Amino acid sequence: xxxxxxxxxxxxxxxxxxxxxxxxxxxxxxxxxxxxxxxxxxxxxxxxxxxxxxxxxxxxxxxxxxxxxxxxxxxxxxxxxxxxxxxxxxxxxxxxxxxxxxxxxxxxxxxxxxxxxxxxxxxxxxxxxxxxxxxxxxxxxxxxxxxxxxxxxxxxxxxxxxxxxxxxxxxxxxxxxxxxxxxxxxxxxxxxxxxxxxxxxxxxxxxxxxxxxxxxxxxxxxxxxxxxxxxxxxxxxxxxxxxxxxxxxxxxxxxxxxxxxxxxxxxxxxxxxxxxxx
Length: 278
Prior knowledge:
The chain is of the alpha+beta class. The chain has two domains: 2-118, Beta-Lactamase, CATH 3.30.450.20; 130-230, 2-Layer Sandwich (Beta-Lactamase). Helix content is 47%, strand content 27%. It has a five-stranded antiparallel sheet with strand order 2-1-5-4-3, sandwiched between helices. It has a five-stranded antiparallel sheet with strand order 7-6-10-9-8, with helices on both faces. The radius of gyration is 37 Å and the shape is rod-shaped.
């Protein structure tokens, strides 16, 4: 009995001092018991929270899905990692990740405040989707697992189409060996500051992409920029330089030939003058 009482004390202490939200709710939709973390995070007292149906504290857009989860709990299923927004006394909403199970018409649940984590994720996703550069995540199985929407603007594929195709199938045949070597170096932990290869567009043409990427474990994070126009301009300049060099070479040869002819003429004239004098 003494050991049982001690266990009850330990459970009560854990319930009271936990930083996460712990509660017992009825399948009637009312809270029955809440730990102090609810008041600390939401600002409402336990009495205020227990007097009103819990759906009154949910974001309107989350009510229908929450009711489905409560029905699932009533049917004996567990709920894991269910995200829902709850109203604070300040009028703001905070996002929580819930885990719950039901027993004897009661729902036992815990929740963790993930508001800041969701905000960081949203900002990261906003940057990912609005970037003008090609942002991509790839695995060690030869596929991109995520790519931002700009891939459709650059190569013509939707993100889903691009990720469904092994990336080596999209790379110009002449660039595959170099790319494989570079991937091997990355998998060994080396960061790539600049690597250029050609990717096949949906229309069959190829575009040059300049990559900067960094590995974390078996996952590679890359940023690519379309440099096709730059490469074409560079090629034109190289061709013009080559043509100029060829013209300079030809002109130099012509001048050398002219100089030699002049030397021969001068030499012949000097010999004639010498004979005439003597």
